[in-house]
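Data card: per-record layout.
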Amino acid sequence: MEEKFSIEEAVNSLWEKLDGWMEAIILKLPNLALAIVVMVAFYFIARGVRKVFRRFILSRIQQKSIQDIISKIIFVTVILIGFFVALGVLDLNKVLTSILAGAGVVGLAIGLALQGTLSNTVGGLVLSFMPKIRIGDYIETNDIKGYVSEISLRNIVLRRTDNNYVIVPNSKFVDDAFTNYSITDRSRIAVTCGVGYESDLQKVEDLVVKIISEKFEQKEGEGVEFFFTEFGDSSINFMTRFWIDLSKPKHEHTAKHTAIKLIKSHFDEAGINIPFPIRTLDFNKNKLHLNIEKDADES
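The structure for this 299-residue chain is written out next.
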């Protein structure tokens, strides 16, 4: 009898709980319907916010993969806001508090575990919005030169002039200085040479300035500069600086190539000597003969 009474009591208790739950569900039906409406509304709001961001803000980012990732982050963020609002409508404040606390702990753990990855991700976002670096720019950082071929959330990919690729982590690239040669259309380059000590230095200066100015157009505020730099072992060395259109490394090499050929041909016509170091080797035959004899005796 006691066992039967115990079973009946358990069944009655279960039915009472189920009845209470059903009653609570019926009472919460308006709130549940409102929560569903809130989630649907936030879904369309998320789509609208994502579309606005894509059109007016993310369009500045040239890397499509980063555009897609940021769009997804924005969409999920708005959906989460709607989810928390829906929980508030259902009066599930305790559940909401537990979820937020758990999310904070999990977020902290993930942040500590993926510190390097998150640093690279933030660096990728920073690079994406930087107006001083774009896909196709020729840049130099940490003695690495190349064209920017890709900017992702983890790294930046540079294509060197030898067609090899260098992958640089975003965090390292953002922290270090870099030079972007593609920002400006004009740059100044230098060519060095030397003339013999017997040369007329004023004639050398006038000739170099004349031929460089005629070959390379100098715009307002620019000009050809000439400086004698040192007394070398066999020549008086000089440097000439001038401006050229430069956005790629080939432009500098081509300009120096042309300038060197011009200077050499005009110096030849003007009889100006470009000396080169001469080394004289003096072999003392007597000492060499004695050394050979000494080696022969020892053997």
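Known properties of this structure: Residues 2-56 form the longest helix (55 residues). The chain has a mean pLDDT of 76.

See the next section for split statistics.
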